User: Fold this.
Amino acid sequence: MVKHSSRNSSFALPRKVKRKPPTAGESEQNRLKKEKARQEEKVKREAKEARLAEEAARGPSKKELKRLARRQKMLADGKLEQTDKTVSELTETGRVVVFARENVQDEVELRELFPSQGTAGKGSEYFMQSKYYFKYVLAKDGTPVAQICKKP
Assistant:
């Protein structure tokens, strides 16, 4: 039952519950439950790691193959630029580069990073204003990087 502060108000205070300290048997049961949960979590984690390792050994998926083919076409068309810089060098922001993300190779993937695909909210100025332009580069390890640059 809830205790009311006054009869004319709808404000209610919850009951104060005094918890009893666990007995020796209960604390031992709780410790065993936690240990069992940790073991189950460890087994699940190992199974997931094994599954991911198996998938990696199989090679790229159908979706990844399509993405790689699209990347090669963009390189041939000149929309994606090959560089000899590392990913960490390409993702650094400064005076010219105001936003950079790795593993983004075209505007579709870049817009997915922003709320409402860059049409509203934070980051929409990058797509609405002409003082920003997009640059898509490929690091020397083959990772695509999208950069949003500010015109000088």
The chain has five helices and six strands.
